[in-house]
Amino acid sequence: MRDVAKAAGVSVATVSHVVNDKPGARIGDDARRRVQDAVLELGYRPNALAKTLSQGGSRFIGLVADAIATTPFAGQIIHGAQDEAWKHGYVLLVANTEGDPVVEKDVIAMMLEHQVHGILYSTWYHREIVVPEILQQTDTVLVDCFSADGALPAVVPDERQGGRTATEQLLAAGHRRIAFINTTTPSPARSDRLAGYRDALEAAGVEFDTRLVLEAEPQQEGGYAAAEAIVASGVTAVFCHNDRVAMGLYDGLRERGVRIPADIAVIGFDNQDVIAAHLRPPLSTVALPHYELGAAGVRVLLGIDPAGEGPTLVACPPVLRASIG
Q1: Spatial contact of 216 and 189, defined as CB atoms under 8 Å apart
Q2: What does the pLDDT read at residue 202?
Q3: Which residues contact 18 (CB under 8 A, 6 or more apart)?
Q4: For the HTH lacI-type domain, which residue ranges apply (predicted)?
Q5: pLDDT digits (tens, 9 = 90+) for 146-159
Q6: Model confidence pLDDT, tens digit, residues 57-79
Q7: Please, what is the angle between helix 12-19 and helix 29-42, to 10°?
Q8: Which domains does the chain have, with CATH numbers?
Q9: Are 1 and 44 in contact (CB under 8 A)?
Q10: Nearest to 73 by CA among 286, 321, 251
């Protein structure tokens, strides 16, 4: 600022008033023009951190994640939050903690020191969390997670709608005997996708049969191990808890000479593109809306979207490929 003042032949205070566009400052047009010319000539940029400290706020939004920055599909949360923040004049500061509580506390403290507008706190899969106490010091929105007491606004995928949508795709293709391979891991995905499956069957007038709900580890091995029971059940379609389970089921059915979708239709969940789009035939699935979760989290934090009584639910859209027929 001293360099600009010297080049423009004005005081440092005058430079400060011009670059900060201070209301009510009495500065002549000639002096203002000289300051602006000097700013351009010297390439001056205000010290954003100093401005933040003096004004008591910033154009930064923090995003603290346990692992999403290192998971290919969940990293879309960062992408969505970053795009939405930039749209409204904010920059996203991202910290990946790998679930280390000491690192987590330190990075949140650093964000608070930089007087971020608020913080998005996110997990790499949808689950209940215990909110770190330090987050009480700023506006916070939980993304892809929620607290039991509902004290903080949360943005989460609509797992029940997703389960209903997956089952509806199979019903629409004419299937009535539909199995559901669920996970063994307690989670909103486990309970709500099952609830959505039952909702769709009930709406279609198809009786729910507990024998057609199988449990499997949520990996490829789980789907592979379920193949024998699926073939024995006589179903014509299967809704898999996630795409990895569907990938294992593909292998198990192929070994038994069962064709997809000619003999059995299959739909997954998550839309892990590296899996779903490259199976043969390509897997129909339901997408977890990671990009929109990040974007919606920013909108709730900025007050653009109002936070409701419970978590904000983001729809899980179908992605139809060739495994249903």
Answers
A1: no
A2: 98
A3: 25, 27, 31, 32, 35, 36, 39
A4: 1-55
A5: 999 999 999 999 99
A6: 689 999 999 987 777 777 899 99
A7: 80
A8: 2-46 (1.10.260.40), 57-157+291-314 (3.40.50.2300), 159-288 (3.40.50.2300)
A9: yes
A10: 286
